Amino acid sequence: MSSGHRARTLEAMHPPLTRTAAVAMCAAVVAGAALGIGTQVLQGVLPGGWSVLANSGVMWALAAFTLGACMPATRRAGVTLAAAGGAIELVVASCLYYAAVGWFEHSASNARSSIIWSCAGVVAGSVFGAVGQLARRQEWRGPAIALIAGTLAGEGARVAWFVGNPAVHWAGIVELTAAIVVGGTCVARRHGLLALGVIGAAAVLTLLAGSVIDHAFAA
């Protein structure tokens, strides 16, 4: 086999990182647009507490996790690409969610709200995007699923007990139930104590993150 043919074969098997990164970031932008606009649409058509679930932080975190899991698993930069993709997805989603307020409700959106959620999206999107990529590896799958369970538990507890609107409390109960189901699959694995620790830490951090965001809006 000639050296030129060998190089073309290797390139076909492992596309250049710049091309892979460009495709991954384009996918993140498209996914973010779908997430932001789709959430606004669902909020308008779903009844009561279902609209709360559609717009919940954990659903957006799951979107970043899913995108990260779908990112190319390159040996050189798979986790980095997934983290960047998750952050871009949630920033785009935050911006277009508030832009869609003007498109669908014909009212001015709050730029400050978009900035706050975009900042939160950089942090949450990068973390969950990276964890989604790591979840493709057998040794990381348990802790990754435990992170999802802990996030569900933290947000579920916040919605069920700390949000002042009783009409949405049942949505928190749904999230807590999901946390028990998902968390149970982690704790039953070989490293159950580790999974339990991740669930607890993620739940506490989710509650703290919700408090920080509330204070940012109140400031």
Describe the 3D structure.
- With 219 residues, the chain is an all-alpha fold.
- The protein has 2 domains: 1-136, no CATH class; 139-219, no CATH class.
- Helix content is 84%, strand content 0%.
- The protein is built from 9 helices and no strands.
- It has helices spanning 3-13, 17-45, 48-54, 57-70, 78-105, 111-134, 138-162, 169-187, 192-218.
- It is globular and about 45 Å long.
- The N and C termini lie far apart (67 Å).
- The mean pLDDT is 86.
Brief account:
The chain is an all-alpha fold and 219 residues long. Helices cover 84% and strands 0% of the residues. The radius of gyration is 19 Å and the shape is globular.
**Which sequence of SSEs, written as H and E, runs from N to C?**
HHHHHHHHH
**Ends apart, CA distance between termini:** 67 Å
The helicity comes to over 70%
Biggest sheet architecture: none
List how many beta strands DSSP finds: 0
How much is the radius of gyration in Å? 19 Å
| Outline type | globular
Mean model confidence by pLDDT: 86
Number of helices: 9
Strand portion: under 5%
Point out poorly predicted stretches: none
Secondary structure elements and their pairing?
Layout lengths: L2 H11 L3 H29 L2 H7 L2 H14 L7 H28 L5 H24 L3 H25 L6 H19 L4 H27 L1
Helix pairs in contact: 2-3, 2-5, 4-5, 4-6, 4-7, 5-6, 7-8, 7-9
